[in-house]
């Protein structure tokens, strides 16, 4: 056993409030946990028990240069083990393996016990699962929904939808009926003074619409909500209509499973503000269903730039690096927010954090009023997994090596974040971040 040394490093408290007690906040919404990724090392097998969407989201953060401590905590909040998160971090930055290892091992005493496990599915963490073969011929969305609502069962395995894979072939006629019901509901609610339940769970910064033949290659998301036993079909790209025009009888469907505390963001109404979504979380711990892919323009609410200016401290042009301002200006002028919405992290302490606030300043200069926003949630309730957590240190080391990091990185001193420091955000990604007032 290697000898471990521990030293303290001031890391903002805001970065250390991303852990959940018990079931992780976003562990299951995207469906079945993928169990077929095995990374063979010379010493052990590191098994990545994480779903496809979570894997890609966390990898996107690491590859974008976000602070290691923040992303590791966000990964754990999504239900990933700390060693799986470290594996992704080192994959994105092999040269930084030593710093990643030191940061991760310093966090161990404050992580929940399950985050220090090599197998998150142990001890019944996940709901019962079943295979497509167990459903009747020509399976119905209604039956998959019933099994989730009444028996808490989920169709397995979770497919890689970005490669066109799906849980099952859904009948276009059934999808059409669900979409028609949603549209009727939306029309009724938009005519009402106070919309209560909207039939959508994310919005999309519209780009060029692909031809029908390409649209039907991507499966349709069907979001299932335990709260109210609701079924919401994602027809943002009009795939159902495209399938009908092409004369198809079936279209691939991917199911998104949502627990009681998760709601479709349409519940906030068509004119929702950034604070509306935040209030749902701060007031009762309710979270909007995660968008399919924020890095591709999906978002939760279309906020107003002025509201972000009121909530967060937005830098002035003179305070932003000239090259950074030029980069952001060219990016927004070319793409607007179509390829990258504003990311807002909600902390259960009542604080909010905004990624790259300089983009808001640039948007003001370019007279942009509407700003798409994506929510990320961080809860602090947790159970410590021990002071030393030596077995977990070994798992973290295995992950570093499996991802291609130098084994000597495991000799680095552990960095323990101190919660006694003022709430600041050092080492921010390019453009920095901004927190809301206390």
Rounded radius of gyration (Å): 22 Å
Give me the count of strands.
19
Which percent bin holds the helix content? 25-40%
H/I helix tally: 13
Mean pLDDT: 75
Structural class: alpha/beta
Strand line-up in the sheet with most strands: 14-17-15-16-19
What is the CA–CA distance across the termini?
44 Å
Main sheet attributes: strand count, strand direction, barrel closure: 5 strands, mixed
Tell me the strand percentage band: 15-25%
How many structurally independent domains? Answer: 3
Low-confidence stretches: 1-50, 119-126, 191-197, 380-389, 418-432
Task: Describe the global form.
Answer: globular
Walk me through the topology:
Blueprint: E1 6-10, E2 38-40, E3 45-47, H1 52-63, H2 68-77, H3 82-92, H4 97-107, E4 129-131, H5 141-151, E5 154-156, E6 168-171, H6 172-191, E7 203-204, H7 212-215, E8 220-225, E9 230-233, H8 239-245, E10 250-258, E11 262-263, H9 274-284, E12 287-288, E13 298-299, E14 301-304, H10 305-311, H11 322-335, E15 342-347, E16 352-355, H12 358-365, E17 370-378, H13 390-402, E18 414-418, E19 433-435
Parallel strand pairs: 1-18, 4-5, 8-10, 11-12, 15-17
Antiparallel strand pairs: 2-3, 6-10, 7-13, 8-9, 14-17, 15-16, 16-19
Helix pairs in contact: 1-2, 1-3, 2-3, 3-4, 3-13, 4-13, 6-8, 11-12
Descriptive terms for the model:
438 residues, alpha/beta, Conserved hypothetical protein from pyrococcus furiosus pfu- 392566-001, ParB domain, 3 domains, five-stranded mixed beta sheet, disordered N terminus
């Amino acid at each position: 056993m290697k000898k471990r040394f521990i030293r303290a490093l001031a890391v903002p408290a805001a970065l250390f409030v991303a852990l959940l007690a018990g079931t992780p906040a976003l562990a299951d919404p995207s469906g079945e946990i993928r169990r077929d990724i095995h990374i063979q090392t010379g010493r052990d097998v590191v098994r990545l028990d994480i779903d496809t969407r979570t894997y890609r989201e966390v990898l996107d953060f690491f590859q974008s240069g976000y602070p290691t401590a923040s992303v590791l905590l966000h990964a754990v909040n999504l239900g990933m083990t700390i060693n799986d998160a470290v594996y992704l971090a080192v994959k994105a930055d092999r040269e930084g393996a030593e710093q990643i290892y030191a940061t991760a091992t310093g966090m161990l005493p404050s992580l929940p016990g399950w985050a220090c496990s090599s197998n998150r599915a142990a001890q019944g963490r996940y709901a019962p699962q079943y295979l497509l073969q167990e459903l009747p011929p020509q399976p119905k969305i209604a039956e998959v929904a019933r099994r989730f609502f009444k028996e808490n069962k989920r169709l397995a395995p979770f497919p890689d939808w970005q490669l066109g894979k799906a849980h099952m072939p859904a009948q276009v006629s059934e999808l059409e009926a669900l979409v028609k019901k949603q549209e009727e509901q939306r029309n009724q609610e938009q005519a009402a003074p106070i919309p209560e339940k909207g039939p959508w769970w994310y919005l999309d910064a519209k780009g060029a619409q692909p031809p029908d033949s390409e649209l039907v290659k991507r499966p349709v998301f069907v979001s299932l909500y335990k709260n109210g036993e609701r079924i919401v079909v994602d027809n943002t790209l009009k795939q159902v209509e495209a399938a009908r025009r092409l004369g198809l009888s079936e279209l691939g469907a991917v199911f998104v499973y949502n627990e009681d505390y998760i709601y479709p963001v349409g519940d906030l109404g068509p004119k929702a503000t950034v604070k509306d979504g935040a209030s749902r979380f701060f007031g009762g711990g309710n979270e909007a269903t995660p968008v399919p892919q924020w890095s591709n323009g999906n978002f939760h609410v279309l906020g107003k730039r002025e509201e972000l200016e009121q909530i967060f401290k937005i830098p002035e042009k003179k305070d932003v690096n000239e090259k950074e301002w030029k980069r952001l200006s060219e990016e927004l002028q070319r793409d607007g927010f179509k390829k990258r919405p504003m990311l807002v992290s909600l902390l259960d302490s009542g604080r909010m954090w905004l990624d790259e606030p300089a983009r808001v300043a640039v948007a003001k200069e370019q007279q942009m009023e509407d700003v798409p926003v994506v929510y990320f949630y961080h809860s602090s309730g947790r159970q410590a997994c021990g002071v030393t957590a030596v077995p977990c240190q070994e798992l973290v080391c295995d992950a570093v090596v499996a991802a291609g990091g130098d084994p000597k990185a495991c000799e680095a001193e552990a960095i323990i974040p101190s919660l006694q420091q003022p709430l600041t955000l050092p080492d921010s990604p390019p453009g920095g971040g901004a927190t809301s007032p206390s």
